[in-house]
Amino acid sequence: MKQFNPAPIKPEISLDELNKIDIRVGKIKSVEDIPKSEKIVKLLVDFGDHTRTILAGIKQERKNPKEIEGQQALFVVNLKPKKMMGEISEGMVFDIGYSDKITPVLAVPESSVPNGTRAE
């Protein structure tokens, strides 16, 4: 494995600021291609009491983006909805590595938990 130098730690935030971010476990029910986009796919995610559409820029990160269907992962669910490529995204998937220019992986619970469970 090639040498990795972690980025500097971001400025401190308070616990109150951190608690504003609503991170939940959701199960990826489907991954749909967005033909107009080179990067973005549409995820349909089950959060237990509701389902959301979340757009994720994972098309070029994986040979087969559909391989994540059926997996649980962590999502930010209280972001303002954002329109991209004619679709509305209602959150953000947590992935590990993108900002560090390494092949990203999903942030996942170590074992199955109910969809909608909060991360703290």
Tell me what the structure shows.
It is a single chain. The protein has one domain (15-119): Nucleic acid-binding proteins (OB fold (Dihydrolipoamide Acetyltransferase, E2P), Beta Barrel). The strands form 3 sheets. Strands 1, 2, 3, 4, 7 and 10 form a 6-stranded antiparallel sheet that branches. Strands 5-6 form a two-stranded antiparallel sheet. It has 1 helix and 10 strands, in the order αββββββββββ. The protein has one helix spanning 15-18, and strands at residues 23-33, 41-46, 51-56, 72-76, 82-84, 87-89, 92-93, 95-96, 105-106, 118-119. It has 120 residues and is mainly β. Helix content is 3%, strand content 35%.
Give a brief description.
By secondary structure, this protein is mainly beta.
